[in-house]
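Schema walk-through. Below, the input block comes first and the output block second. Nothing else is stored per chain. Lengths vary across the set, and this one has 450 residues.
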Amino acid sequence: MLLGARAAPAQDVDWIAVKGASVERLPESVFGGRVALYRAGKRGAEPVILIHGLGHAGARDWAEVIPALAASYDVYALDLPGFGASDKGNHLYSPANYVRVLDALFGERLKRPANVVGHSMGGVVALAYAIAYPDRVRRLIVVDAAGVLHRTVYGEFLGRAMAGRKVGAENPWFEMLMRLITTQAENLPAKGAMSIESPQVRQRLLRGDPTTIAAFALADHDLSRGLRTIRAPTLIIWSSDDKVAPPRTGQALASAIPGARLVVIADAGHAPQVTQPERFNALLRDELRGKLAARPYAQPFAATAGGRSGSCVSERGRQFSGDYDEISLQGCVDVEISDARVGRLTVARSQVRVVNSHVRDGIESHDSRIEFTGGTLGGDPPLSLDETSVDAAALRFLPRGRVVAENYGEGQVTLRLSVSEIAGLRGDARYAHQVLRLVEDQSWTPRGVR
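--- output ---
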């Protein structure tokens, strides 16, 4: 065990006896401690790995799932290092390091691909594992994954939720948000002496607390390149009222992962496997059997069926879907364009969400706020902006030239990009998970896009 690590009390594993599972505390080489591994079900059957999220409960979040799967599957759950009955210390509890733990536990233990199920932080770990070891994953199920969006976007969401008193102080994300605000952690570099890779920084800024360290490391993890490489059949499960991980994140994941499907459970909070276990387990069993009737989420890319134009002037809550040659918005708020194919979009003094849609000939925008989730955006350039804020998650840019965005006005333009992709003219792609600010007459040409 490494210096500073501490073992969890033995009673933390007592709950599993009720579920008919066995538990082992195994040595692991990544953090140098011991990890609690739970096992139930039919030995030699198809394996299922359950990966929990943030919180002291650890694998107990799967307490109602384990017995539901045990009759048909060889079920594994673990307390990730830093949680539950596994050892704890001031270590870098990052998704990448957790993937190394999974490799150490299951690389030799399992002789066939496993079904991998991850919730919240565990959803990101499951995604990273499927990216790193595609041949080891039979099916991938991601449940209300936290993080994924750029940390400034996700921090803003949590801030709004907190301001609306929808996130309580008992929630593990509350402390992470408070520390993001008080330490201005968004300004810390991802690498170097001031990053959380340093034990001294983790102790000084985060008190060496495993939950807070894991939350910060999760917020820093960039999935933009890897999501497009996942080949395992993927199901995204989300709750409609999740106040920790916005449903928009589920839409982004389902847009970026090839062939992914999205199923929404109504009013299940952040942990549907805990709050609605019967509904959740039915979905999970159907998916594992290959019997879940759910179509791929992402709208197929195709030419618009012409002949229709849409407009909005000084209205609230307008919705557009289907095919349009052009859409014009002037002085409109809370507009949503969803499941649409649009030729040209013009926006002035408006607020609009563009969800799972394709815009062929670019956007011209003045004094507006635009939010993209999934879909594609073409044009030469795709974005012509003046005093506009753009928040794009899992958006695929299809520029016809080298420039992706230009600021044609005098004020600043802000682009917040989460797990997005820029297609190159010669077929090569680049990825964007960053914040960009363009001043007057400045344009953005991603490096390497030719």
